[in-house]
Design goal:
The complex is a heterodimer. Chain A is mostly helical. Chain A is about 75% helix and about 0% strand. Chain A has one domain. Chain A is built from 20 helices and 2 strands. A two-stranded antiparallel ribbon of chain A has the order 1-2. In chain A, helix 7 runs antiparallel to helix 9, helix 11 runs parallel beside helix 13 and helix 13 runs antiparallel to helix 14. Chain A starts with a helix and ends with a helix. The relative contact order of chain A is 0.10. Chain B is mostly helical. Helices cover about 65% and strands about 0% of the residues of chain B. In chain B, strands 1-2 form a two-stranded antiparallel ribbon. In chain B, helix 8 runs antiparallel to helix 11. The relative contact order of chain B is 0.08. The chains are: A mainly alpha, B mainly alpha. At the A-B interface, helix 7, helix 9, helix 10 and helix 12 of A face helix 25 and helix 26 of B.
């Protein structure tokens, strides 16, 4: 905490400010020379900005910012900013690390992907603005800031999904995403309004106090909570708010699919964790949200995994896999026991899974970006024999897919194991069983892709001419991180636990 | 570090931190294995020198360990890694650790020595002959050495089992080294499968030990051996789970299960059939497998946990009978073989029978002694056979040889020394150890042990006669008389790298008997029985109370009321006199058939006298149709059962699995229809979902 005594509190927003400044700088660069702006300069600026934000977040996290000092108990130590509208604590920093890591990878990977794209500066600055929004979501401590931050994530995302302007699929996906998103935002806003009516406040701590003191408008509060749940479920792409996801992921440029499915989902979850565990933790008698999440979690993972079985388009398979993973992480809320205690809490396990997922899922989508760059095609059959031509990338993809399935080749094994362990110790054995069964089903479609890469013979005319550096760097870093998260999982779960205690302790 | 005392001797290798780090011996071959595997192609002599250096250093460390133990260092027993820590006082503890006591140090030295010599010999046998794929050969050789050494220093049964299996795998790799030929490939498979059959019982035995005692430790007060002994001694079996059996009955069952592994690996009847086929491997490999490693592993295992077997007279009787019968049975088959290595193969089986006989007959010391001397002279004989085979251009039939003694002088002399040791002629190594085996069995039979011991002893004596006969038949046919073929007329010269191991082992075959001249115990001072003092732990410093691993303690258990209840009887003669008489009898029984062999095969152009045996010869040549009945067992019994199991698996289990896959895909198809691509449908479903949630919780939450 030493640097907090020397730095003013607002510097805790450093990661968000760095991202915002980079986004604006990119626009400025483009304004100076709109015709000739160098793509290396643009990528470099975005990556640098992302790395600065990531570095700040890591520094704060390891230095103990927003964590209880010695002798203090969680949730003491959190930094309230702007009269409690924002809060910087271990959880917000933990998720900032996820978001900025993904943003850096995506920026790297976009370098070659965007070669013939006419609006590169806008693309990068939209990515960074969305990332700014996500970082703000992690820190939101009031329904107002939460809503604004969510919109700051959503609006650039709509544009990014549709950013391949000449591609019909991309435009259609963007439109669908926008329409469903608009409806969900409306539901979310309506929910906020109802909660405000019931509690008389929008600030989280005040709402918590109001609920604890009792409110005469329990029905309104309940309906409001369900609607807020809807808003969160849209962001994390949980059934039945997931319909946009497969279409949007498929149509969007693959790096954007990676970005939305990893970082945006993490931002949605952080809001869900904070709002439900911290704010509505005392309102369980009004709306038993644990049961609601239980239903949604099981339905989400089941529907998604079974839907993925029949797909033939690799990107769509991964889209459903991403939905399924939302179901797995929802276990953290569905098996929540009312407090965070013990060595391993279910909440910490869920956060750790999101962390690992950030790398392995991004990596998998970036491999698709690579395949799209090579123009080999979209279906599983088109991937036949890629292993011979691009062994390194395919090995990395194998690591991503098996780690997603939960095999002990990447950190995904441990995070799923901790989730399972936490469900069993928490007495939610059925939830654990659903997790196991669904993981087995998922293995089927993950293996199908791996088999296509390695054991099938390539089409006769398959020849890869170019190995794009930026994409390879991004994939290599993601693969390295996925594998290193096996030995390094201890650190992740440690900080995830600290983060979980900040809201549930 | 339990039992570690400072070194009193000045002898210490710079990189060995006293006896405390003797497990590094084991790591040299492992590192070598990895290096050869990775860079074998680029190493000089395809990794041969690397193997020689690493086994050489390993051997030196083993010797240093022996010297340290002999000069007062304490034994070392330490758990290095705990795999599963049981709950205090309950549950199962699985650990990896080392146990360096006189027995394992001795065995470590033997393994190191033989492995070193085999590496050196391979330079001439494999490299000089221009064999291909040598890195694979040397890598497997190193892995083999590593596995055996790790097996030897294991401090618990589970770890033993792990390395026992690794030894089995390595033998598969080496026997099948020339896998492109059908013979070696099938021999490797056979060795693997037959020993695996025995190991199956061993595995059940390991589980039984763990289930009964909760630990598989060999040494220490918490070892299963000591726990079993205490239970029988006090008559109180509480704290161990005997699954409803009487304690001694249950210990017998466990002992026999573990014995299954030893019977397979040590090629005892009826699981001996793999060993003769294993001669298909390169000859240096045969030397390694049959002298120091794989086959020795079975006997070593029984010796390692002898304190446990000493509790069960039934198990001991079974071991004695199996051993005695194998010694006899294998010797009969060796009588008629025409190929050099086949004779040696059956003699190996027969000699390991002696060791089992000794163990069953209460002669722990005799068994270890014979294991030691046999390792030396059998390695010598196999390497000698390898030298002959090379010089004969890979001809193995003895009837195609003859008259080699002048051309291959060194080989002849060394081979002769080994043969005299094998035949048990005074004063060569085998005489002393084999005689001790018979003597120990005899005194325990005379002392009123089970009559089975008499039968086993008689079979052992008969085997002495046949051993001497077939050994001299082999020597005479190979080296004496006139050359019978062109190849024998003009054999290859034997290279230096092959001669050196032969000379070293030849000298050892002459002198190794000095370790324990028990035949002369009536005239010698007590201190002259070096091996007895060694295994009694008299040289070892510190407390040797590590669960009583001494030969003395085994004898105590063996003769106690609660143990096997053996007593020694001397048939009216004194102890020393009986030893002397037994020695003379055995010597006479060996010399007479040797002379007969000389008479029959000593001429310039001997006749194939064995054909006079007629149909008996046919039976022996066909190995009593052992292979045939085992093949029938496999085809007639195992195959139908396996087919049935397969049907069950295919039909029922796979049906369920396939069915669930089908249901999944069907469900997937249904779910997919929800994703219509029409955005209005999405929005409608979304709203519907939200409404359902609202309704459900409005009703259950009482908001209405």
């Amino acid at each position: 905490m030493s640097e907090i005594t020397t730095l003013p509190n607002w510097t805790a927003l450093g990661p968000a400010l760095a991202l915002l400044a980079t986004a604006l700088a990119l626009l400025a660069v483009d304004m100076v020379d709109p015709e000739e702006s160098s793509s290396v300069l643009l990528t470099g600026t975005s990556v640098t900005g992302g790395l600065v934000a990531l570095g700040l977040a890591l520094w704060y996290l390891f230095a103990g910012t927003g964590q209880p000092a010695a002798g203090q108990e969680a949730p003491q130590g959190a930094l309230d900013l702007f009269g409690g509208a924002l809060v910087i604590d271990a959880m917000s920093l933990f998720f900032t690390v996820i978001v900025t890591s993904v943003a850096v990878l995506v920026a790297f990977a976009s370098h070659e992907y965007l070669r013939d794209h006419s609006y590169q500066a806008e693309y990068y600055s939209l990515v960074l603005l969305a990332a700014t929004g996500m970082v703000t979501v992690t820190a939101a401590n009031s329904f107002v800031t939460a809503f604004i931050a969510i919109e700051l994530v959503s609006l650039p995302s709509y544009a990014l999904v549709a950013s391949l302007k000449t591609n019909e699929g991309s435009s259609e996906a963007g439109l669908k995403y926008f329409l469903v998103g608009a409806l969900s935002s409306a539901v979310f806003a309506y929910g906020i309004a109802l909660v405000y009516v019931a509690t008389g406040s929008l600030q989280f701590d005040a709402v918590t106090t109001a609920i604890a003191d009792g409110t005469p408008f329990t029905s309104l509060l309940g309906v409001g909570m369900v609607m807020i749940l809807g808003g969160v479920a849209f962001k994390i792409a949980a059934v039945p708010f997931h319909f946009w996801a497969p279409d949007a992921y498929e149509g969007a440029p693959a790096p954007i699919s990676a970005f939305i499915s990893s970082a945006s989902k993490a931002a949605g979850f952080v809001l869900g964790f904070r709002v439900f565990v911290d704010v509505f933790g005392g309102a369980m008698g009004v709306f038993n949200w644990v049961n609601a999440f239980l239903i949604i979690s099981v339905v989400t993972m089941t529907v998604a995994n079974f839907s993925a079985l029949k797909q033939n388009n690799v990107k769509r398979i991964l889209a459903y896999s991403s939905v399924a993973h939302a179901g797995y992480v929802l276990i953290a809320l569905a098996a929540f026991t009312g407090s965070v205690d013990g060595e391993i809490s279910i909440l910490g396990a869920g956060m750790a899974h999101l962390f690992v997922y950030g790398f392995m899922n991004t990596g998998a989508f970036l491999f698709i970006a690579l395949a799209e760059h090579w123009e080999v095609g979209r279906t599983v059959e088109d991937y036949h024999g890629l292993g011979e031509q691009a062994p390194f990338a395919c090995a990395a993809m194998t690591v991503f897919l098996f780690s997603l399935a939960g095999l002990p080749i990447g950190g995904g094994f441990f995070s799923k194991f901790y989730l399972l362990f936490a469900t069993v110790t928490g007495g939610q054995g059925l939830l654990g069983a659903a997790l196991v069964i669904n993981s087995v089903v998922s293995l089927f479609y993950y293996t199908r892709i791996v088999r296509a890469l390695w054991t099938e013979d390539a089409a006769a005319d398959l020849e890869l001419t170019e190995y794009p550096t930026g994409l390879y760097i991004a994939i290599a870093v993601a693969a390295l991180a996925t594998v290193l998260l096996i030995p390094g999982f201890g650190v992740v779960i440690e900080y995830a636990e600290i983060a979980a205690r900040m809201i549930g302790g | 570090m339990v039992g570690l005392t400072p070194l009193s001797a000045g002898f210490s290798l710079p990189f060995v931190p006293g006896i405390g780090g003797v497990e590094v011996t084991v790591l040299f071959p492992l590192v070598t294995f990895l290096l050869i595997l990775a860079f074998g192609r680029y190493l000089p002599f395809k990794g041969a020198y690397l193997g020689i250096v690493s086994t050489g250093v390993g051997f030196l460390v083993a010797v240093a360990t022996v010297i340290q133990l002999a000069t007062g260092a304490g034994i070392r027993h330490e758990t290095l890694h705990t795999l599963v820590a049981g709950v205090e006082g309950a549950g199962v503890t699985l650990t990896f650790g080392v146990l360096i006591d006189p027995l394992s140090a001795l065995m470590l030295t033997i393994v190191g020595l033989i492995s070193l010599l085999v590496h050196v010999f391979s330079l001439g046998y494999m490299n000089a002959e221009g064999e291909i794929d040598l890195p694979r050969y040397y890598a497997a050789l190193s892995l083999f050495t590593f596995s055996m050494m790790a097996f030897v220093i294991s401090d618990n049964l589970l770890m033993s089992f792990v390395f026992f299996e690794l030894v089995g795998l390595c033998s598969y790799l080496l026997i099948g080294f020339w896998y492109r030929k059908p013979g070696p490939a099938s021999a490797a498979k056979k060795a693997f499968l037959v020993t695996r059959f025995g190991d199956y019982f061993f595995l059940i035995g390991v589980v039984a030990v763990l289930g009964t005692f909760g630990t598989a430790q060999f040494a220490g007060t918490e070892s299963f051996v000591t726990m079993a002994e205490t239970a029988l001694e006090s008559g109180d079996a509480s704290g161990i789970n005997t699954f409803g059996f009487g304690a001694q009955t249950w210990f017998t069952v466990i002992g026999l299960l573990v014995l299954g592994g030893a019977v397979g690996k040590s090629a005892q009847f009826p699981l001996h059939t793999w060993l003769p086929d294993a001669m298909e491997g390169p000859t240096p490999v045969s030397a390694l497998i049959h002298a120091a490693t794989m086959v020795a592993a079975g006997v070593y295992l029984i010796a390692r946990m002898y304190g446990f077997y000493a509790l069960s007279p039934t198990a001991l009787s079974v071991i004695a009978l199996v051993g005695g019968f194998t010694a006899f049975f294998a010797a009969t088959m060796a009588l008629v073989k025409q190929e050099l290595k086949q004779v040696l193969a059956y003699s190996t089986i027969s000699q390991y029978g002696y060791m089992m006989l000794a163990l069953g007959g209460g002669g722990y010391l005799a068994a270890v002694f014979h294991l030691t001397t046999h390792a030396i002279f059998k390695a010598l004989l196999f390497l000698g056979a390898g030298a002959i085979i090379i010089s004969m251009h890979h001809e193995e039939n003895m009837w195609e040889m003859g008259g080699l003694k002048d051309e291959l002088r060194t080989t002849y002399l060394a081979f002769l020394a080994g043969s005299l040791a094998l035949a048990g002629i005074f004063p060569f190594a085998g005489f002393w150890s084999k005689d001790e085996v018979l003597y120990e069995t005899l005194i325990h039979a005379l002392g009123g042990g089970s009559p089975v011991l008499f039968v086993a002893y008689a079979l052992g004596l008969l085997a002495v006669i046949m051993t001497a006969f077939y050994t001299f038949r082999m020597v005479l046919l190979t080296f004496h008389g006139e050359p019978r073929t062109d190849a024998a007329e003009d054999p290859h010269a034997v290279s230096l790298s092959m001669k050196v191991p032969l000379v070293v082992l030849g000298v050892l075959s002459v002198v190794a008997g000095l370790l324990n001249m028990a035949v002369l115990k009536s005239v010698l001072p007590k201190d002259a029985l070096l091996l007895e003092r060694w295994l009694n732990g008299e040289t070892v410093g510190g407390e040797f109370a590590e669960g009583a691993l001494t030969a003395e303690h085994y004898h105590h258990v063996l003769t106690s009321e609660y143990g096997a209840g053996y007593t020694a009887g001397y048939g009216g003669l004194g102890e020393g006199t009986l030893a002397l008489v037994g020695g003379v009898v055995a010597l006479v029984l060996a010399v007479i058939p040797a002379l007969v062999a000389w008479r029959l095969y000593g001429g310039a152009d001997p006749d194939p006298h064995m054909t006079n045996l007629g149909s008996l010869r046919t039976l022996l040549m066909n190995n009593y149709y052992q292979d045939e009945y085992q093949v029938w067992l496999a085809r007639g019994v195992t195959l139908p059962v396996a087919t049935l199991a397969n049907k069950f698996d295919q039909g029922l289990l796979d049906g369920i699995v396939d069915g669930s896959g089908g249901v999944s895909l069907f469900a997937g198809g249904r779910f997919q229809r929800l994703q219509s691509g029409v955005v209005t449908t999405y929005v409608a479903l979304l709203a519907l979902g939200l409404l359902v949630l609202l309704l459900v919780f409005a009703v259950t939450g009482g908001w209405l």
